[in-house]
Structure formats: structure tokens, C-alpha cells
Write a structure and sequence with these properties.
InterPro entries: Fumarylacetoacetase-like_C, Fumarylacetoacetase_C_sf. By secondary structure, the chain is α+β, with helices and mostly antiparallel strands. The protein contains five helices and 18 strands. The protein has a single domain, classed as Fumarylacetoacetate hydrolase, domain 2, CATH 3.90.850.
């Protein structure tokens, strides 16, 4: 291969519990994966086929700071489970999908809701609302060997000490093995891919100076300040 004509971009990394870092290849995000959240966004909570959008790998940010983005007056928090893959492939059976998981973490899908809403009305992609810089605050990844697979467990988000979001991972409409299997029918998954697994009800706006505290049972806490 020829030498690059510009400096090669760095591969985004997520710190891992106990040292080391996980290199990120792609970021897949499932939409409306908790029934109560589907309702609050104006949709039928019945088990419709899953749908996904993407963030950019460098949107994931472990710094603990979220810069309030430009061109928006309505930025919302969404707490989510992050699933990190150690391997992949195509047409992965549900029965073996969890074999591809390296570990789990806590993340936030920060969303320019006003811009996302405009895109929805026009039938356009969501990236202008979802893929803004540093819109994926993320905590350390925990290996499966330490946590086991997370099919249930409390997931919450507090803003300035006030409970905003609360649910349980067992309320996900599409479970982790199903998400992996479904995605692999349309994409070739690979080591370094991550999946943001959806958010419970209670999404809402944040302002500069707000402190968000996200928790998932078994994974500890992620604290992020809006700056």
C-alpha cells in the first residue's frame, strides 16, 4: 500500500476496565428499543422490525465532558448500554451471537432533538441530530469475563441529582443477540464494532453546567458534565 498523502487519522479508543483500550471500527445505534420510549416519541410500541442509524467512531468520548453543540436549542440525553464486539461476520445465528461480544459499557446518545425532528419531517437521515462531535460520552468497557452477559439490570440517568430515566435491560424489545444477528444480515460485522442498545423513557433536555450521572447495574457509573 502507498504512503498516505495526509497524516493518517487516529483510531478512536475506549478505555477498558483494568487497563488497555478498545479500538472502535463502527458504531451502530438501534432506535426505539424500549416500549415506553417509543410511546413518548409518538410511536407504537409493538415489536416492529428493528431499525438502526450510525454515529461516527470519533463521536465516542471518554473525557467526562460534553460540549453543548452548535445550531441547536434542544439537546437531549439518552442513557444506553454499549455492546463491544471482539469478532463478527455475516448471517450470525442468534444462538451464537453472544460469542462475539467482548464486553459492555455505559454510554449516552446525546441528540440535537430539534434538528432530528426537522430531519424526520423531511424524511431525511438523522445524522445531523445524532452524529454531532462528542455526542457519545462513554465510560470504561468491562469484559464479559467480569460481568457476564447483561440481559437484565437497572439502567438510570440522573441530571443534577434528579432522576430522569429509569428502566431495566430486560425491557429491551430487541435483545443483544437479536441485534447482533439482525445487523449481520445487512452488514459484515467485525472486531471493533460497537452497538448502542437503546434508551428507556424519560429523555429530556440538558443545559450548560448540568451534570449527568448514568448507571447500569453491574457496570458502575458514568458522570458527564455539559460544558
Amino acid at each position: 500500500m502507498s504512503d498516505p498523502v495526509i497524516p493518517a487519522p487516529q483510531v478512536p479508543m475506549i478505555p477498558t476496565q483494568g487497563g488497555g483500550a478498545f479500538p472502535v471500527r463502527r458504531v451502530y445505534c438501534i432506535g426505539r428499543n424500549f416500549a415506553a420510549h417509543a410511546v413518548e416519541m409518538g410511536h407504537d410500541p409493538d415489536r416492529e422490525p428493528p431499525f438502526f442509524f450510525q454515529k461516527n467512531p470519533d463521536n465516542l468520548d471518554p473525557s467526562g465532558l460534553f460540549p453543548y453543540p452548535a445550531r441547536s436549542q434542544d439537546v437531549h440525553h439518552e442513557v444506553e448500554l454499549l455492546v463491544a464486539l471482539k469478532s463478527g461476520g455475516t448471517d450470525i445465528p442468534i444462538e451464537t451471537a453472544l460469542d462475539h461480544v467482548w464486553g459492555y459499557g455505559i454510554c449516552l446518545d446525546m441528540t440535537r432533538r430539534d434538528l432530528q425532528g426537522e430531519a424526520k419531517k423531511l424524511g431525511r437521515p438523522w445524522e445531523i441530530g445524532k452524529a454531532v462531535e462528542r455526542s457519545g460520552p462513554v465510560g470504561p468497557l468491562h469484559p464479559v469475563a467480569q460481568t457476564g452477559h447483561l440481559g437484565r439490570g437497572e439502567i438510570t440517568l440522573h441530571v443534577n441529582g434528579e432522576l430522569r430515566q429509569s428502566g431495566d435491560l430486560n425491557q429491551m424489545i430487541w435483545k443483544v443477540p437479536e441485534m447482533i444477528s439482525y445487523l449481520s444480515q445487512y452488514f459484515e460485522l467485525a472486531a471493533g464494532d460497537v452497538i448502542m442498545a437503546g434508551t428507556p423513557a424519560g429523555v429530556g433536555p440538558v443545559q450548560r453546567g448540568d451534570r449527568m450521572e448514568a448507571r447500569i447495574e453491574g457496570l458502575g457509573e458514568l458522570s458527564v458534565t455539559v460544558v
